[in-house]
Amino acid sequence: MPTIRDVARLAGVSVATVSRYLNHKGYVSRETAEKVEAAIRALKFEPNEVARGLANQKLNAIAVILPDITNPFFPELLKAIDEQAERYGYNVLVWNARSHASKRSSYARMIRQQYLDGAIIAAHDIAEDEIARLQAEAIPLVLVDRPSAHGVPQIRSRNREGARLAVRHLMAIGAEKIAHLSGPASILPAAERRQGYLDEVEARPWFAPSLIVGGELSIEGGMAATEALLARHPDVDAIFAANDLMAIGALKVLHRRGIRVPEDVALIGFDDIPLAAVVEPELSTVRQPVDVMGRLAVDLLLRRSNARPKKKHPAAQPIERPDDPSSAAGPSVYELEVTVIERASTLRKNR
Amino acid sequence: MPTIRDVARLAGVSVATVSRYLNHKGYVSRETAEKVEAAIRALKFEPNEVARGLANQKLNAIAVILPDITNPFFPELLKAIDEQAERYGYNVLVWNARSHASKRSSYARMIRQQYLDGAIIAAHDIAEDEIARLQAEAIPLVLVDRPSAHGVPQIRSRNREGARLAVRHLMAIGAEKIAHLSGPASILPAAERRQGYLDEVEARPWFAPSLIVGGELSIEGGMAATEALLARHPDVDAIFAANDLMAIGALKVLHRRGIRVPEDVALIGFDDIPLAAVVEPELSTVRQPVDVMGRLAVDLLLRRSNARPKKKHPAAQPIERPDDPSSAAGPSVYELEVTVIERASTLRKNR
DNA sequence: GTGAAAGCGCTAACAA
DNA sequence: TTGTTAGCGCTTTCAC
């Protein structure tokens, strides 16, 4: 492997000049540049990223910390992040919240040791104090779909609003008793969606708190919650699930019981994972713009740490939180618009 | 950030000694070790990975090149790889075959520039000559589910055998006219599965080549292929699909047409992606041991490049290929056992 | 057993 | 504009 030194020698200049040429920093005369260029080509020189990393104290790479890569939402997010990082010329390290950290060492440590530029955290199963530590050490951070003490930039969807849209959609097609399969209260998006549901139905005559059934945000969780729901309220005619996986679980249970969707019970989920369009009947849902979330996450992270972003995000709605003192330094919570996707599971009923 | 120098100073020894202590190389007396230890603790010293990378000419990281991270098979594989890499203390860079490479620069270049230890390639959409180049440069490589010129270690399932098992299973439950939805012939596993199907049915009186319908290995591909199949052979009573996604596509089409599964048509896929257990009816399939594939890939890669593996892989069946001259240096193709998973889509029919 | 010193390949003052 | 040189933080001979 030729080094910058070889290039310098062949071009008859100093390594400093080659370095300047390479990084477009400082002055390099036209002719010198050409000589350097020629030498680089002749030697097939490739600057060594690790050496630059050492010298610059940064490696042009970021970490993405995910809770569970096999949950279909995250590959989508990862893909978006990866593509955007690629545009900046950055590498992406994928860390599994469960298997990493605790084991080898803390995230802060891993990030420092490797001169990473920061981390995108989408894992709700990382403790708040771990986040606090990272922030205390001034490690650039962006949180996706999880909250934290103020100051850390956060990206998430308009969960509450999305839930309201979903419920209104169910009402619009004629639903008269709408239940909600809710996720763990400890997971913010789940809590927000629950609240959105409440916003819409609390005042209705038919509403009863027992129409809300909690469970894990998984297919199994959705199945269990639906069983419980049907035991209590055999007469529901619509269900809003906290996410698509739960909705799919609900679908399975309804199907087994011979309850038709959407004729007997209309069903809507949240996220719009690819699976939603695959099940039968196809699942209506509230779409989160994963791709925007991923791109924005990278932009925010790298903007903070150094690079210049290249695009605007029209879908992003940076909001000021009046109770957040840090907002003086710019908004720290970005909420993205969501939209209802109507599919067969909420096809207007003809009764 | 304290450096090794600070540690040395505080401990009253030289940096060389600290380094030796850190890497368990060379002799360090009991007492010296204790002093160093104390200094490290006192300073909260964390060795810098990038600097070690430079000095060692290796960064303890590998690249994983995937064709499409949103295809549910790959997150599973990635997870397994990630967990195993973690055990070795290695980092994983995830590269998307489509978006990377061509763009920035070649894989070979990226791997060298970053002192990576090698790459696991699961992308069938990487050209053979790209692989050849990597190998020519002696970059450690392991291929998963894709073939290549000999010499490069390859991991895959017993696709042909699995296909035979699937078809035999269909026969065992009473199927009398079995069709096959096959993937692109250019993708090796797809070709092997097709061959396995042929092995079992070619001699049957009911067999006709038109029972094989090609398509993409996706849900859409499965749908299209099924449409075509039904047009030709409305009387098929069983379908073996080249992978689960295609099978799910078939399921959708059959469902729309009012054809019952498994009563009218039995259906079996291949891979056992999580989705298979989610659709209705649940999909029978041939299971590939993704987790073993991932672990083995990491082991082979790192064994070649340096580290010592820690476990055996009982499911792995290294096979010698008599026509492969390189097998003198050890087997280069590992075929993993597969098993039929019986679910509702092939429940024995009572006619 | 331990330390001095020369790298690993590149960047960035500071001079010239 | 360009070159000299001192790092970046760690590893590794090679003496002692």
UniProtKB/TrEMBL annotation, chains A, B:
What UniProt keywords are attached to this protein's entry?
DNA-binding, Transcription, Transcription regulation
Instruction: Give a yes or no for keyword DNA-binding in this entry.
Output: yes
Q: Enumerate the Pfam families for this protein.
A: LacI (PF00356), Peripla_BP_1 (PF00532)
Q: Where is the HTH cro/C1-type domain?
A: 3-50
List the CDD domains: HTH_LacI, PBP1_LacI_sugar_binding-like
Show the PROSITE patterns listed in the entry: HTH_CROC1, HTH_LACI_1, HTH_LACI_2
Q: Which intervals of the chain are annotated as region Disordered?
A: 307-332
Domain of life of the organism in this record? Bacteria
Q: Which InterPro entries does the annotation name?
A: Cro/C1-type_HTH, HTH_LacI, Lambda_DNA-bd_dom_sf, Peripla_BP/Lac1_sug-bd_dom, Peripla_BP_I
Q: What's one GO MF term for it?
A: DNA-binding transcription factor activity
All copies of the HTH lacI-type domain together span 2-56
Tell me what this protein is called: Ribose operon repressor
